[in-house]
Write a structure and sequence with these properties.
elongated, 17 strands, six-stranded mixed β-sheet, four-stranded parallel β-sheet
Length: 553
């Protein structure tokens, strides 16, 4: 048995022997299972939440994207607070739609749920006054059950309790389509504001994807009131829940100490972070994929081979081709909020710099769902894996009606020799097809669609064998760097709008610098040139010891 202790939890846990090695360290809830380094980090987060929010009597919402560790944090926090508070931890996912049918039904269901929780929570029950609880429970049999009577009874329970009561409700999104839940929040707000005279919960924590101020978006019987918050007393929860590179490295060090793979922990942590930007579920998924699947594959018979850049690339490829609740949720929300979807396409295809503005609905929703993140004064797609998945989805939709995609499918067998991709030939063929199909298109169309058309041509050629992504750091309206991974070989292709020779020469120098970063000797430039005197085709340029293949269309 592997025994571990949480430094401040004052409890110990044992991990059954049948738990797999990966489950001890990484799980798909987005958090580490009992790895000591992570639990120390979670413990520090819990202390911060307790000091900054609970001890100060705050009501707040932990709203993050799907599989961001919200539930795990709530469960750990409930245990962590037991020395100082009576904790009631509810999950609205356990209540059905019928439980929210009307006010009376909700009150009875809430009380029954509370009874059930207390029956299993001896630590909380010993601080609850039995008579006050009986008065609350008796409401179930009353012919006049209502929210105001519920809260009067709850106030009596809180007033007579031996310790301050903390209420936690997980998965509040499942209740957010129901008017009675908003009325429940409004009652909480009223008692919070008058708690000096009407005792109520010391602190309330709600957890879900939606922020409380956005819950009414899902109801909107009156469009003009959709942003009215039923609970504007909530404190801002600004504690980071994503992983830093150092935190990923801490988990990997713990894994390495037990498995001795010989991995370069720092390099592996950096590469995982580059793909995930610390999104907990994605970090855990990559590690789980490597440990449970790739280690069994012949190409990765040695631990240091699979815990490497090549192994991470392969794990990402598998994840991108998997159907998961996280990606399903992304598709659903993009279909629901079409303006957010259009903005994502503008960022990815056209390199648009979207200025951060919390009052813009598409930005606000993208941040709330975890699809976007703020970077300086702009918003960007939250991580590279999301970018790749979104591009795959957008391209798949476009491919159904794309002539140039069909040409890529036809030519798929022409571009590989001995398992190596001939990128020179890929560009040469693209120029020929592009010129043939789009030579009569106007400049505005080509400037907006050129990069998309190349990606549509490239996708079927590498599909199932390789991946590509667009480098966010260099992407703008004029330039995009596409990085292609194909059977362990990398290609850097700079896609840009041609302006003049001076601009092109600067682009050549930028590309050589970028090749240094990837330790490559050869790179590619694809320029969309709208000068009628241009000379379409390929040419080779030598610069700073590098070979540049320049393609002009």
């Amino acid at each position: 048995m592997i025994k571990w202790t949480q430094r401040r939890f004052k409890i110990s846990r044992t991990v059954p022997q049948e738990v797999t090695s990966t489950q001890r360290y990484f799980n798909t809830e987005g958090l580490c299972n009992p790895a000591v380094h992570y639990m120390v980090r979670l413990d520090e987060r819990l202390e911060t939440i307790k000091h900054a929010f609970i001890d100060r009597g705050k009501y707040f919402v932990i709203n993050r994207g799907r599989q961001y560790g919200k539930t795990t944090t709530l469960r750990a926090l409930a245990e962590y607070l037991q020395d100082d508070y009576a904790v009631i931890s509810m999950d609205f996912q356990m209540m059905s739609t019928a439980n929210f049918e009307d006010e009376s039904t909700f009150v009875v269901s809430f009380i029954e749920c509370l009874e059930d929780i207390l029956s299993y929570s001896k630590a909380t029950m010993e601080h609850i006054d039995r008579e006050a609880l009986d008065r609350l429970v008796s409401l179930k049999d009353s012919p006049r059950t209502s929210l105001d009577r519920l809260f009067r009874a709850l106030s009596g329970v809180c007033r007579t309790a031996g310790r301050p009561i903390v209420l936690m409700i997980d998965e509040v999104d499942s209740a957010s389509n129901h008017r009675v839940f908003l009325d429940f929040l409004a009652m909480l707000r009223g008692y919070y504001l008058s708690r000096d005279s009407h005792p109520i919960f010391h602190s309330v924590i709600l957890a879900g994807v939606y922020d409380i101020k956005n819950l009414k978006l899902k109801l909107r019987p009156e469009e003009e009131h959709q942003y009215n918050s039923p609970w504007n007393i909530a404190a801002d929860f600004d504690i980071p829940m994503s992983f830093s590179t150092d935190e990923i490295a801490a988990m990997l060090n713990e894994y390495e100490a037990n498995h001795g793979t010989g991995m370069d922990v720092g390099a592996v942590a950096d590469e995982i972070y580059h793909y995930t930007s610390g999104y907990p579920y994605l970090v855990s998924s990559i590690c789980k994929m490597i440990d449970e699947k790739l280690l069994k594959n012949k190409p990765f018979s040695v631990g240091s081979d699979v815990w490497s850049k090549k192994g991470i690339t392969e794990a990402v490829k598998i994840i991108l081709n998997s159907k998961t609740p996280l990606f399903d949720s992304m598709v659903k929300q993009l279909d629901t909020f079409r303006d957010m979807r259009d903005m994502m396409q503008d960022i990815l295809y056209r390199g648009e710099k979207v200025v951060f503005n919390p009052d813009t609905r598409s930005i606000n929703m993208g941040l709330m769902f975890g699809f976007l993140r703020q970077s300086g004064s702009h918003v960007v797609v939250a991580n590279r894996i999301f970018e790749m998945r979104l591009l795959n989805m957008f391209i798949a939709e476009e491919s159904l009606k794309s002539e140039i995609y069909s040409y890529g499918q036809i030519d798929i067998n022409k571009f590989t020799t001995g398992g190596r991709l001939n990128m020179d030939l890929v560009l040469e063929k693209f120029i020929a097809y592009f010129t043939d199909i789009y030579s009569d298109s106007d400049e505005k169309f080509l400037e907006a669609q050129g990069r998309k058309l190349f990606l549509l041509y490239l996708k079927p050629i590498i599909n199932g064998v390789g991946n590509f992504y667009m480098e966010a750091q260099t992407r703008d309206a004029r330039r995009t760097d596409v990085i292609v991974d194909y059977l362990g070989e990398q290609f850097v292709i700079e896609l840009k709008i041609w302006r003049d020779n001076e601009y092109n020469e600067r682009g050549e120098q930028q590309l050589t610098d970028y090749l240094d970063y990837f330790h490559l000797q050869k790179g590619y430039m694809l320029s969309f040139n709208f000068n009628k005197k241009k000379e379409p085709g390929l040419k080779e340029v030598r610069l700073g010891g590098k070979t540049l293949i320049e393609a002009v269309v």
